[in-house]
Amino acid sequence: MKKHFLLFSSFIVLMSSQALSNSSTPTIKKPKLIVVLIIDQFRADYLTRFKERFLPAKNSNGAVGGFNYLISNGAYFPYAQYDILQSMTGPGHATLLTGSYPYQSGIPLNDWYDSKLGKNIYCVEDEGSPIVGLPENKDLRGMSPKNLIGSTVGDELKNAGYPSKVISIALKDRAAILMGGHRADLSLWFDPKSFQWISSRYYLPEGNLPSWVTKLNEEVKIKKSPMKVWSAKLQETMKSYFATTSSYPNDKKLTGKIGPTFNHGIAACSPEELSSPYGNELTAQAALRAIDFYDLGKNITPDLLAVSFSSHDYVGHAFGPNSKEIEDMTVSEDRVISTFLNNLKNKIPGGLKEVVVVLSADHGVAPNSDWLLKNKMASGRVDIGALQAKIEERLNQKFGKIDSGKGWITYSIDFNYYINRDGINSKKLSKSDVENEIKKVLQMEDGFVHVFTHTDYENRLLPPGMHERQILKTYFSGRSGDVIAIPKPFFVHGDDNSTTHMTGYSYDRTVPLIIAGAGFKHGIIPKMVDVVDIAPTLTILTGTIPPSSSEGRVLTEAFNP
């Protein structure tokens, strides 16, 4: 009997061992380099709407394409979401590599009002970190990640003691800084007025740009022609079914013919030149130079390069998502990414097999409201100046004018309203009473679906469902508004732009996500995922812990078994 029991036990152990060896467990390979490519304002549907115009995944000469290469050689999630109240550049880039929502990262908006300091605050401003690369100017705001709370993927590489390099690059300062985190070796951004790459003393305490950046700036300023022309790269053999005409025919930023085809005249070395495919080329050029200078991908531990292409956002605001301009911009990005990947393949020992590439975006965008109205969709623009005048009138009638003459609202942005603290204190009023009066005014506006106050937030008296969930993930006391209005779908604030992004609706929050590299599946994974999942998925590759406030999960379904 004992002999039979031992034989049976041995059989169970053997079968268990075989089961474990045959089980579907992800294969995790530590890459030499992680490249995070973010396209600013790149809605999820751009990869499907314009797919026919993208380069092939690989051509007969072995050169790789752009989007099609990444889709064919990576785990492609068509829908990744920012489940937050207001989708914009600052919160989006802060979320990407922290894996945390704005209520933790402290970046609920691009700008806010600090009642204690009595002034507006830009999300990456820091008076203690002067700009490097420009003549000293007291009017220039210093920049750093000072306002970002918690760590990033790059920070955790450094915190683990690895000699990894962390570099972040974008035309927009907030994009570069918030991706790089607190311990980046360098965050680099572009000054449109002087038309050159700059940084701050936070990264360069000695006050000098690295030699490679200085040389790059010299090259950027050498122009053979004072005027460039951005022409649509339309081909008769490639039909475009979706983009018809520019959805913003009265654009003031770029001059030229606008329509199914266009020719925009753009002055060289001007801010307008960044609102064209050239801005993407500048960004990719800087990223490739950084790879060379820092020997990225050649260290004993993984390096991180985060790159954000800001020009797409400039064009999107000017022309809207249903324009030939945005189609052409997307096609140009496909070519720029292809060029970047082919260069990367030759620079990294082992080629692209040793690199993990992440492609995503910081937010989407709404269609042009005028275009929507013409096509039977409820939409509109809220006159923010007139609305604030109504609020002031209501509060003056209810409580009387404030003696200081500053008004009841010290600052408003993106339907966030900040109350004059000195004013309510001088009148000995309850802040919640003033909030409620503002709320009543906003509730009468046709363009809003919900309005909530700071007091409502504290008492958890919030709009139901999606909006409550997004508020709780976004609201940051002291930075978010005292009163916030949530617009109806497709309603935006009125300004000179064709369109904008500022909500938690699908068109603003939904972006693509591709993770390509050794160990990852190839093809579409039809599953909704969260952008906060990117950070823990990357840290499991590097062998470090997730960022301090990370709330996402590891995307196990993206890995090969």
Radius of gyration: 25 Å
Strand content: 15-25%
- Overall mean pLDDT stands at 90
CATH fold annotation of the largest domain: Alkaline Phosphatase, subunit A
* SSE-based structural type: alpha/beta
Task: Please state the second-level CATH architecture of the largest domain.
Answer: 3-Layer(aba) Sandwich
Please give the domain count: 2
Describe the largest sheet: 11 strands, mixed
Overview of this protein structure:
- It is a single chain.
- The protein is built from 19 helices and 22 strands.
- Strands 1, 2, 5, 6, 7, 8, 12, 13, 20, 21 and 22 form an 11-stranded mixed sheet that branches. Strands 15-16-18-17 form a 4-stranded antiparallel sheet. A 3-stranded antiparallel sheet has the order 9-11-10, with no helix packed on it.
- Helix 7 links the parallel strand 6 and strand 7.
- The radius of gyration is 25 Å and the shape is globular.
- Mean pLDDT is 90; it is low at 1-23 and 234-259.
What's the topology here?
Blueprint (H helix, E strand, L loop, with lengths): L1 H21 L10 E7 L6 H4 L17 H6 L1 E8 L7 H10 L3 H4 L5 E4 L4 E4 L8 E2 L20 H7 L6 E5 L2 H8 L5 E6 L4 E5 L10 H10 L6 E5 L23 E3 L5 E5 L9 H18 L8 E7 L1 H9 L4 H24 L7 E7 L7 H6 L5 E3 L1 H16 L9 E5 L2 E4 L1 H6 L4 H13 L4 E6 H6 L6 H9 L8 E5 L3 E3 L12 H4 E7 L6 E2 L4 E2 L3 H9 L19
Parallel strand pairs: 1-12, 1-13, 2-21, 2-22, 6-7, 6-12, 14-19
Antiparallel strand pairs: 2-20, 3-4, 5-8, 7-8, 9-11, 10-11, 13-20, 15-16, 16-18, 17-18
